[in-house]
Amino acid sequence: MTSLMRSYTYLHPSAVHESAAGRTLALETSGGATPEGEAANPRFFTGFLTAPTASAAALMAVGDVAATRYYRPRPSSFLDPVVTANGDRLRMESFSGCCGVYARLDVLAPGLDGDDIGHGTTNVDVNAPLRRALARIGGLDPLHLAVGPEGIEATTFDGQYVEKKVPLPQRWLRGFAEAQVLGVDFALRAEVPATRTAALLRSLPRLTQSGARTTRWVVPAGATLRPVSRPAPGAVCLPGAERLLPLQPVLRHATVVRVYAPAVEHGATAPVAWEVALPGMRLTLMLSPDAARGFSGEGGVLHDLTAGPAAADAEQIAELLSWEPKIDTTELANEADLPTERVRAALTVLGTSGQIGYDLAEEAYFHRHLPHSAGAAEKRNPRLRGARALVAAGAVHLDGTLARVGGGEHAHLVRADDTGKLSCTCPWWAEYKGGRGPCKHVLATRMVRETTQEEEAR
């Protein structure tokens, strides 16, 4: 997987500062986007965290996920978490080193007491000393929070800056897009007291040198989750169950835990999300369908990327976004004068550049802004490039419900069933059966069919 080197430049390392006035959690920001344009070190909030101990534990969990590789563990550089200020909340997001775990902490308005919350997106420095300091925070003493440097520090650069150069894998960017697409199909499967959840997590195996491999299931039963060793009706999959362990230190501050998952065939492995409700906050961990699978390869965005007007629609929709904490797709459709389904497809396209996330608790999209172009989506999706190459070469031949794609011994048959769902005879489809998105042959067939239908309708 191609990686670029990206530099994060901070005026100081993030730290917990002690003084006579109390403690301050200073989260240093790197380059980011704001309503006024790009900023070297934006400032988004200064005030107090209303639940300091819970906040420290949740923030540490997000940092720990970014610092951990759950599948085939090995030491590696990790990216600094992304923070988005949405005007009424702060969101901190990260992916694990293997890209199979997505973590997000939403610090809502009740969790913050201070100045107005800004708008924008940046990276924040979460270093090893800071994580150790967060682990020591306890008691009822208030904790001041500053997201971004003091104004005077931003203008009197003293040379004591911190610069990190880390590999920026395209997997993170693709992971943001895929997690958003997956989340739309999730539904609430269980809501249980945090104390019951803590007992369940204590029963999970520890992470080993070989990585997270244990797939388990839990069956919602009243106010508890009953663990089972094999699939059962109504069971929720826990793929790579060891990957839930970062939630353990947080649960003693929690009230309830909610479990979200898609509707799947009985016995099939599937992604899952666990949301921990904290005072004024929510911490969510989403697990990929298998510990060996990163979110970046799920292929859920590919159908919308092949839709004819989606790219043009995305440009129009992007102009209407301004770091909204909740995107109302119906209102957005009215503003853009587009059908709701075209708006959703456009949001998927914007998601490929990290511009869109999805909040399970509120069942709504939200806006973030990363320094990447939605127009580069094709470069980040080789199956999409392959499909367009097949179409350009005239390698798709339609014959009713069948399509022959390719030529000679490399040709494959794409077949439509009674519902219009496409399948293929290629090795990719034989291995995943559509479980990781469509193959390039199915994508190419869809493109040609849509073009043919448009031409016939004229």
Fold topology:
Layout lengths: L2 E8 L4 E5 L2 E6 L4 E3 L2 E3 L5 E5 L2 H15 L15 E5 L3 E6 L5 E7 L4 E3 L4 E5 L4 H9 L6 E5 L3 H5 L6 E8 H15 L2 E7 H9 L13 E6 L2 E5 L7 E3 L17 E6 L10 E7 L2 E7 L14 H4 L4 H9 L10 H8 L3 H12 L4 E4 L4 E4 L14 H11 L3 E4 L2 E4 L6 E5 L5 E3 L2 H6 L7 H18 L1
Parallel strand pairs: 3-12
Antiparallel strand pairs: 1-13, 2-3, 4-5, 6-10, 6-12, 7-8, 7-11, 8-9, 9-20, 14-18, 15-16, 15-17, 18-19, 19-20, 21-22, 23-24, 24-25, 25-26
Please describe what this structure looks like.
It is a single chain. With about 450 residues, the protein is of the alpha+beta class. Among the domains are: about 5-85 and about 105-170, no CATH class; about 380-458, no CATH class. Helix content is about 25%, strand content about 30%. It contains twelve helices and 26 strands. Strands 11-7-8-9-20-19-18-14 form an eight-stranded antiparallel sheet, sandwiched between helices. It has a five-stranded mixed sheet with strand order 2-3-12-6-10, covered by helices on one side. Strand 2 (about 15-20) and strand 3 form a beta hairpin. Helix 4 packs antiparallel against helix 9 (about 340-350), helix 7 (about 310-320) packs across helix 9 (about 340-350) and helix 8 (about 330-335) crosses helix 9 (about 340-350). The longest helix is centred in the last third of the chain and has 18 residues, at about 440-455. The protein is globular, with a radius of gyration of 23 Å. It starts with a strand and ends with a helix. InterPro entries: Znf_SWIM. Pfam families: SWIM (PF04434).
